[in-house]
Every structure is written in C-alpha cells, then in structure tokens.
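Question: I have long wanted to understand how a fold can be written as tokens. Here is the record:
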Amino acid sequence: MSETIPDKTHPSGSEAKNATGRFIKSADSFFHRPDGVFWICLFLFGLTVWTFAPALQTDFQYFDDATELQSNAHVNTGLNWQNLRWALFSFDYSTWFPLTWISHMLDFEMFGSVAWGHHLINVLFHAANCVLLFLVLNRMTGVLWRSLIVAMLFALHPLRVESVAWISDRKDLLAFFWGLLTLWAYARYAQEQGARSKVPIVRSRNPFSTLLSPCFRFYFLALFFFALSLMSKSMLVTLPCVLLLLDYWPLNRISDFRFPISDLKRLLLEKIPFFLLVVPVSLAAYVSQKAGGAIFPNLPLGLRAETALMNYARYLGKMFWPADFSVLYPYPDHWPASQLLCAAALIFGISIAAFMLRRQRPYLLVGWLWYLGTLVPVIGLIPLYDQSMCNRFTYIPMVGVLVLLVWAIDDLTKPWRRRTMLAAMVTVFVMGASIFRTRGEIAYWKNSETLWNRTIAVTKDNFVAHSCLGVILLKTNPDKALVEFQKSIAIHPDYAESQRGLAFLLEDDGRCSDAIVHFEKAIQLEPQNGWARQGLGMALFKLNRVGDAIPHLLKAVELEPQVASFKDDLGQALFSSGHEADAISNFLASAQADSAGFGRFLDSMQSDTNHAVLINSLAWSFATNPDPGLRNSNYAIRLATRACEMSGYQTTAYVGTLAAAFGEDSQFDKAVSTTQLACSLASAAGQTALLKKDQALLELFRSHQAYHESAPAMSP
C-alpha cells in the first residue's frame, strides 16, 4: 500500500489562515513599538500633504486674504520690530491673534506675495495637527488603531478644505496646533501624577520641590501651550472644560459623576489658571469684534437661539454628508418649525443616550460634550458677520464626534467574525472617498471668482456672495459686476458694500446722478466709511458741484488718512474752487505718503489739457518749495515739461517753471537756456513783472544756484 505524501508546496486553508494571523499579529506588534509609531506618523503626514497638495495652486482670496494680508502694510512688509509691536497690541480687524499675524509676517519674509508658499505653510500645519492628534489620542487611550482612524478621518475630511486652502484661516490651524500640544502636556501631567500618587511620598526640605517635579513641569508646559493657542485664536476658550472631560475619560481621574467633593475641588483648582487666561482673552475678543463691526447687529435673540440649535444639527449633516459646501451661509428669515423639531430631537436624543450610557461607554458622553462645548463660541448665539455658520468652525469640534463614532463602532462590532479585515476594507473605502471629495472641493478655491460662483450655486439669496463676486469682477467684467451688485441689493437693500460697489460702477460709467443716490444710501448705512464719502465727493465734483463735493472729500481724508489718493482728489477740488495753497499742500502730502500712487495720479491728470494750470502750479511747488523734504526735481521737470507741451512752449509762466525745475536738478545749462526763452516770451508779450523775475532767475542760474521760495510757494 503506497503512502500518501502531503504536498508541502500548497499549504492547507487552516495553515494559510494561521500564517495570515501570524503576519497580522507580527505587524501589529511592530506598529505598537516606537519605530512603528514613527512610520505611522510619517505615513499620516505624507498622505495629508499629498491630499492637500492641489491647494498650492490656488490664489489669495478676495475675502480676508486681500484686506488682512495683501493690503496690510504691517503684514506684507515682513517681520520687524514695528510690525511685531503692532501684532502684539493691535485689535485691528476685529480680533487679537498676535501669533497668527507673526506667522503671516514670516510667510511674507520667506515667500513674498507668491501664494503657493503661504498655502504650503497651511498644509504643513494641518498635516502636523493630524500627527499630533494621533499621538495625543494614542497616549491618552493606549489604543493605536482607533486613534489612527480618528486622525485620518480628521485629516482627509472635505470640511478641512476651508481651513487649509484659505490662507487667512491660519488662525484655526495654529490654535489647534498649540491646543493639541496643551492636551499632550496635560496628559503627561495627569499620567505622571497618577504614577506619583502610587509611590510613597518622601518629604523634602525644599518647599518648591513639588512644583519642580516632572509632573508639575508638564502642567506648566500645558498652561504655556494653552496661552499660545489663545494668542493664535480665541476659539479654544472652552479647553479648560475639555480637560475636565478628559479627566473623566480616557484619563480616568474621575470614576463617575458621583464622586467626592474633595476630588471635584482638586480638579477644578487645577483648571483655575487656565480659566484665568480665558477670561481676559474672551472679553478682548468680544469688545474688539463689537467695535470692529464683526458682531452682526439687530439679529433677534430668538433667531439666534434657533440658529444655534440648527447649526448643531447642520454641522453633523455636513460631517456625514459632505456636499454643497459654501464659504458663507446666509441667515434665513426664519427656520421652519419642522426643521427645528427634528434638530431638537436629534441633539437632545443623542445627549440623553450619551448620558444614560456614560458608565458602559464613557467615550460617548466625552465625545459628544467635546462637540457641543467647543462649538459654543461660534455656534451663533453671538452672531459673527453675515454668516449663520462656517465650515472652518468644525476644525476642532469634529474631533469629539469622530472619537465617539470610531470607539462606538469598535464596541458594536466586537462579536463580528473577520471584523479586522472588514474594518480595513471600510476604512480604505472611506478614506478614498474622502480624498476624492476633498480634492474636488479644493478645485473651487482656485481663485476668488470660482469660489464665489460656487457659493452662489449652492446657497439661496446670498446677497454677500453676489456683492463679493461683483467686487471681483469690477475690473475684468464691469457689466457682469453691475448685475451682481443689483442682485445683491434686490435681496438685501441695506447692505452697504453692494450700494457702494454699484455707485462706483455708475460713476465710472458717467452716470454720476444715479451714483450719488447709492453713495448716499451707503453713507446712511455706514457713516464712517471713507470710501463712500470719497465716491460721493468725486461724483459731485464731476457734476461741477465743487462746493458740495469738498466737505465729503475732507471727511474721506479724515476717516482714511492713510489713503494718499484721497488727498489727490481733495487737492483737485480745492484747486478748482480757488484754494490753490491748500490744494498744493494736499498734493505734496500725497506724494510723500505714496509716491507710486501719486505717479499714477499724475499720469491720469497729464492726459487732460484742462489741467495745465494745476500741473504748472504743482511743478513750481516741487521745484521751489521752501521745505527741502517737499521738493522733488523729477516730479517738477516731468510736470513742467508737460505744461509747456500743452501750451506749445508759448506760455511764459510755464517755461519759467521748467527753468526752475532744471535749476533744482542742478542742470544749470538747461536752466539758463530755458530762462532765456522765458525772457524772450515775456518781452514779446509785454509782461514786465514776469520779465523782471525771469531776469533775476537767469542771474541765479548762471551762478549755479537753484531758486527756492522763502514764503509759501506761489506760482510765477
């Protein structure tokens, strides 16, 4: 009888299964070691950067990027002592976040105005946050794979696009970066303290030995990181409450909500320094936002409360069904009762279930309260700007929902066979879908026009979106811009920016009477807006209502003294009304404040022959002003040459001004020959006074001396 020899080259099913099990166990063991954790962090960081890499090809956005960064001289000139002082003590732009300002200053130092460099820093911060989130969860819970899944879902979710692709939203990235470091240091403190409490206490003669112990060093480090988070953005003012939640789970410093008063007292005392940091930052944020107009006025308290309730449900909807994202969601006139009831049932239902299951599954309560609590500052009770909700506000709160979800699924699937393989397949599918949607969402951020067109497409009656698109199209497509402003005003007539934008378009089109109506409406809505005042003044000036124009132009300069072009406009009006000296002083101030802008103004003015007298007066002042700081030979020669060209070199005063300009520039040969021409013109025309003055100038130039007025400059 022949013996059957087993075929060792083809292992049986049970052997293959055992081999697979051994491989999975070996891989799991490797990834739980420090070198394995390092490779996980590297993978997570690289995957996040790769997913958001298309953001590097997007532009600065009109919304906030233009005003806070590109046009902000304190930021776009880079890091220096003056800008650093501004960042630390300024409440401009309705808030206080010095670390965020400093990071943007460093961006301009490194990359200038090239958008991809600024986007790169955002992407790197987001990737770092994802790695930190994984490390913090892993340290607190000791559960590697669930911590990784939470971090990956957080990293790749489409809701992250707004925070990453919008350069101005660096504040959320930075705040959570320091917030995560706060959680890491606090976890180390709690764990070190727990280990220390099990060791017999050896009394030391040094009264500071307890404070200097490794345990308390981590506590003070957590406090330091928390201060940096608040200096990046005040979003994490609720973090001390989050620390109390983490004391309950996963740090297990509280066994239940029924614990001794002494334990409660100890844990609350621990948090007092954190709350002491929160109070002044919260007050400063509220005061600065209210003063800067960030808090949306006249919104009924009832609508605010309804919006807050709806937003808790709406944010959950965006997390689980990431579609129709908008950069701005407008307030509705009212919320339907059916939607309010559904939202209330959802929120209160989850809250009750999480509380009832707190002993068996404490992560439900902690994750849910994390979500509810961290959203409180931005949930809508204090309405910010014209937006009912913002995708970027979910950057921190979403972590609580993800922890709740991942830990709950793990518990519910424990009885399942082959759940490891199934979990891996589902995770890969969800991550792939997230990457696909995230990259699709980034495409809408290519530039401001694509972003606001998308916003209009996915929202209803969005008057702010129509207005923003109108501003973007002002130069490239004024006809379409006009339509967008009109749509915005039709939806909400009391939106000042739309009234102002439409007025400027009408003024540029020569319809100054129509423009005045909208400028006046804009001023009624925002009396302290200098641009509306300037627009109204220039519209009146173009209608030859100079007396009516000057008060508005004066008010514009008062409201916006840093805008040099307003001084040019005021100068024109003053000169036309016969106030030549005041006009010249405004032009000189403009030239000092913004030489490039003043040069553009001169270019536009020199094309109009009606401005010959004004051009000559300016040239004379630049050539002969008694203040050396206000003299400018280049401007003087340029303007005097243009005035002479306009008159065919036949006006004695203009030729004399050109001679003075050459003298100021030390071109004395040209000054002499030009003055001789002026003398000939004056003699032929019988202009005795001018002839006498030009002859005096001739002698001065022959001795190589320039002519300067000893009194306020007057044209010859």
Remarks:
- The chain is about 70% helix and 0% strand.
